[in-house]
Design brief:
heterodimer; A: five-stranded antiparallel sheet; three-stranded antiparallel sheet; B: about 190 residues; alpha+beta; five-stranded antiparallel sheet; 6 helices; disordered N terminus
Chain lengths: ~775, ~190
């Protein structure tokens, strides 16, 4: 049997293959040879064969038949064999397969080997891929090595211990004694890995955290030495001494200083020193500054230090290196809530980043810009943001448009400005506007009574230009239906009134009905608008004709509306003016769009109306009682659905999604109720209701929520922060969750409050969301 | 790059650390691949099936290769932060956790490249292709479980050198040779 081909030879050969098929053939041939060699239990060439197998595995070919061979190599006495064997184990085995457990004994022996490089291999493998069982079996060996004086092994043992703790957190305690003198080491490798180990322990256990706080002075000293010491060739990176260690220490200090006054104070000086003395010309210096800023922002630092940190971020924003700018924007986004004023000072630089070429930077700059909008800067900021909206990539437009609407709603300096801004968004990014904006905008327009004439005129003009953007068309149709009389009479004060006739208006609306560009929803809007004009225009006959034509439309929704409007003309003509009256001012019950409409119109006498109206498509059954009055009010509310054109967008009643209890402990109960205030199935609006059954109030009540990264969450202001005792009242707060990927909704909540003089904090997972809330 | 992660909070940030969310792993994996998308090295620090690894590799390679030169070295991908940098014809790509420092990760990548460079003498992609096992050995002397175990370039290279030496020497059953060799190693 000739010797198997060498590794490099094989690589060379495979690379000569000109096609995938040729390569596959070569691989298969070699694999066959390797397999038979394995079968023959050939010790001499096992190492070479496994190495070749690993190469082929990297190319994407199956190599599972080599798994046991790796184990045999590990058990061999030859160092070469062990090296390849352990590498193969790390590449081919995984902890989900039982095979890997066979390694345990070998690793145990090798951890006690007389050659440190063999011990190193074992530690590395265990620390990289050791399963929980393996870790349990071998933790004792690792702990022993953590106490050795051999720094080569000690540093590896420390990281191995980190892995063990991650896999089997209960074993953390046993490593505690070995940590005693870790920081007195001179060896940087040991120091670095020790800091990583300490960090891991502190992050996992409040007791450990409290225990290790006493190390703060020592850590400060080590950091100081690194900064002040002269040039050390062994650890120097562009003039900075061991940046990796510096960053790690800064991170540990962050964890130790968080929430603790004394520790924070002890590290104040060194943080200021690092912040001011670190060289910023290269990435490595900025990496340290970045970590420093994160630490300053997280601990209880004095305000001067915090301002220093924000200013560093501000300088980062001006850096030529886009990576630095990216990092700055991310950090500023995290601190904008707590240090709002400091971040405001850098507003113009942030706004400039909207023009950056990098998509990630643009997105962050946009988010940050919206966070910085307030009553003082709204005009200037909106100009920039609208300009951004015009020119940005489509992936941003929806979020940007929503952001603009939200900001405009909160800070609009005048109603005219507000309407103009909305118009600008609808006309430039109309097709990207979220569906739930339409009812919001309609409500806004309705409530801006003095702007009705101006609004309808502008919308009408926009329709003449372009009927392709559905949200714009829907809002415009609705307005024309409501305020068409103002349009005709030329009452606009804000700008030059246009001359337009009834027929021209009806032409436009009918044009929407027949256009291919109009969605079914839009057609519904325009038909209803035409109907409303029957009480505002004089061309009633024309309108009657249109309505009767659509009585036989193949679109069921349109047909139903037309039939009912026809009925209005024929049998209920006396009710028509009242039903089609101008919409009243709407009160908002939630702060984000109408979920309940206060109806003040429709004073028709209760007379029997045929209850043959099925609920509109997609609507649930109402809870109205089956009385005569019930029937009429049901009919009227159905009519109002159509007339208000929110039949698919607003639920008058909390529908279908059952409420749930998210938390119930120690007398504090938190219920979740759900609404769908929009046709966007990806947004869930959850209202939390917190009640307290104990005999003492819960004060300083704070509710926090976190969701997995694939969701976006918005938490609005709570109704109050006192949950009164004995269920005398509830605290409510609205959460909006955007679930674009329709994944199962999960939430982690954190509650803090003061009860009978002591602070209470609790964390909980909420996993029992009803499927309707996220499907 | 569309997801933004957020933890909503109605109060200030100065609070106790969140023990319910300890970091799982700093660096989850490192991939080296060519401009044509051929994998040259894959180091995984989290347990995943072969199938999952292949899927992640394929998607991530595609995403990174689609990036334009003017873009920054960081991107958000699934739940992770990806830090990547191109050196000649090779892309070095690391996946790190949310709380990790992207800038220092760039330095980690750079340090690894320097080590390869010193070891191979002006390293190029071909060196990594033909000596992939050595590239792994060097990585395993520099990082362990995704964290740096040694911050001195000199020490990493020394360890590799001596381990290579061990490979050359054939094990003697004669304990005298064995002892002498140990002494030589320890004195270095």
């Amino acid at each position: 049997m000739p010797a198997p081909i060498r590794l490099r030879e094989l690589i060379r050969t495979i690379r000569t293959a000109r096609t995938q098929a040729e390569e596959r053939e070569m691989i298969q041939k070699e694999c066959a040879a390797i397999r038979s060699s394995f079968r023959e239990e050939d010790n001499t060439y096992r190492c070479r064969n496994v190495a070749k197998l690993l190469y082929m595995h990297m190319l994407g070919y199956p190599a599972h038949f080599g798994q046991l061979e790796c184990l045999k190599l590990i058990a061999s006495q030859k160092f070469t064999d062990k090296r390849i064997g352990y590498l193969g184990a790390m590449l081919l085995l995984d902890e989900r397969q039982d095979v890997h457990l066979l390694m345990t004994n070998c690793i145990k022996n090798d951890l006690n080997h007389s050659t440190q490089y063999v011990q190193g291999l074992a530690l590395c493998t265990l620390g990289c891929m050791g399963s929980s069982e393996m870790c349990r079996d071998l933790a004792g060996e690792v702990e022993k090595l953590l106490k050795t004086s051999n720094s080569y092994l000690r540093k590896k043992a420390a990281l191995c211990a980190v892995h063990v703790i991650r896999k089997v957190p209960e074993l953390m305690e046993m490593f505690l004694p070995a940590t005693k003198n870790l920081l007195s080491e001179k060896n940087h490798g040991v120091l670095h890995t020790s800091v990583v180990l300490l960090t891991e322990m502190c992050e996992r256990s409040p007791d450990m955290l409290a225990h290790f706080r006493k190390l703060v002075p020592q850590l400060v000293r080590i950091l100081k030495n690194l900064i002040m010491s002269g040039y050390s060739p062994e650890h120097d990176v562009s003039g900075i001494s061991d940046p990796f260690l510096q960053v790690r220490i800064l991170r540990l200090l962050r964890i130790l200083g968080k929430g603790d006054d004394d520790s924070s104070e002890a590290m104040n000086d060194i943080l200021a020193q690092v912040a001011t003395n670190t060289e910023t010309s290269k990435n490595v210096g900025n990496a340290i500054l970045y970590e420093t800023v994160l630490t300053i922002m997280d601990i209880k630092s004095e305000s001067g230090l915090r301002v220093l940190a924000i200013n560093i971020l501000g300088r980062f924003l001006l850096n030529n290196d886009k990576n630095i700018r990216y990092v700055a924007l991310t950090s500023l986004l995290k601190t904008v809530q707590t240090d709002h004023n400091a971040v405001q000072r850098h507003r113009s630089t942030i706004v400039d980043c909207l023009k950056d070429l990098d998509v990630s930077i643009k997105r962050r700059a946009m988010e940050l810009s919206f966070a910085l909008v307030n009553g003082n800067n709204i005009r200037g900021m909106m100009k920039e943001l609208l300009y951004f909206l015009d020119s940005c990539d489509p992936e941003f437009k929806a979020d940007c448009a929503s952001g603009v609407f939200l900001a405009a709603e909160k800070y609009a300096p005048s109603k005219r400005w507000h309407i103009d801004t909305i118009m600008r968004v609808l006309t430039t990014a109309g097709s990207y506007v979220r569906d739930d904006s339409v009812p919001n905008l309609i409500q806004l327009i309705t409530n801006s009574v003095e702007m009705h004439a101006y609004t309808v005129q502008r919308l009408y003009k926009a329709l003449l230009d372009d009927i392709s953007q559905q949200p714009l068309v829907q809002v415009a149709s609705w307005c024309i239906g409501e305020y068409g009389d103002l349009l005709i009479s030329g009452q606009c004060e804000e700008e030059e009134p246009i001359q337009v006739t009834e027929d021209e208006v009806l032409d436009v609306l009918e044009g929407l009905l027949v256009s291919n560009l109009s969605s079914p929803v839009t057609r519904g809007y325009s038909l209803t608008a035409i109907m409303k004009l029957s009480t505002r225009f004089s061309s009633v006959n024309r309108i009657k004709k249109v309505v009767s034509i659509y009585g036989s439309s193949i679109d069921v929704e349109l047909q139903q509306r037309a039939v009912e409007y026809n009925a209005l003309f024929k049998k209920y003509d006396h009710m028509r003016p009242a039903l089609l009256e101008r919409m009243p001012i709407m009160e908002k019950t939630a702060s984000n769009g109408p979920t309940e409409i206060v109806q003040t119109n429709g004073e028709a006498e209760p007379s029997v109306v045929e209850p043959k109206h099925p609920p509109p498509v997609g609507q649930p059954a109402s809870q109205v009682k089956n009385t005569v009055f019930g029937l009429v009010s049901r009919c009227l509310s159905l009519m109002a659905f159509y007339l208000f054109d929110l039949s698919k967008t607003v639920n008058f009643l909390s529908i279908g999604i059952p409420p749930m209890t998210a938390y119930n402990k120690n007398g504090l109960k938190i219920d979740f109720t759900f609404e769908r205030a929009n046709p966007n199935p990806n947004v869930a609006v959850i209202t939390i209701h917190a009640s307290n059954s104990t005999e003492a109030d819960m004060t300083d009540f704070v509710f926090q929520a976190a969701v997995p990264k694939t969701f976006q969450l918005q938490l609005l202001s709570p109704s109050s922060n006192v949950v009164p005792a004995l269920n005398q009242g509830t605290v409510t707060q609205v959460i909006r969750v955007l679930n674009q990927q329709k994944q199962q909704l999960r939430m982690r909540i954190k509650l803090t409050y003061i009860h009978k003089g002591s602070a209470v904090q609790d964390l909980a997972e909420v996993n029992n969301f009803p499927p309707q809330s996220w499907q | 790059v569309q997801q933004s992660h957020c933890v909503a909070s109605a109060s200030a940030a100065n609070q106790e650390p969140d023990f319910s969310r300890p970091s799982t792993r700093s660096m989850q994996f490192m991939l080296l691949f060519s401009r044509q998308g051929k994998l040259r090295l894959q180091k995984w620090y989290v347990p995943l099936s072969d199938k999952e690894k292949k899927k992640i590799t394929r998607e991530l390679v595609q995403t990174v290769l689609a990036r334009k030169p003017k873009m920054c070295s960081f991107l958000e991908w699934r739940d992770l932060k990806i830090v990547y940098k191109r050196y000649a014809s090779l892309y070095f790509c690391c996946a790190i956790e949310d709380q990790d420092n992207e800038l220092i990760t760039l330095e980690i990548i750079h340090r690894y490249v320097e080590l390869l460079d010193k070891y191979f003498g002006s390293v190029c992609e071909l060196d990594i292709i033909f000596n992939f096992e050595k590239a792994y050995f060097i990585l395993d002397e520099f990082l362990l479980g995704g964290e740096a175990q040694e911050t001195s370039k000199k020490n990493v290279l020394k360890a590799i050198e001596q381990a290579d030496l061990l490979q050359e020497v054939r094990w003697q059953t004669d304990s005298f040779f064995h002892l002498v060799f140990q002494l030589i190693l320890r004195s270095n």
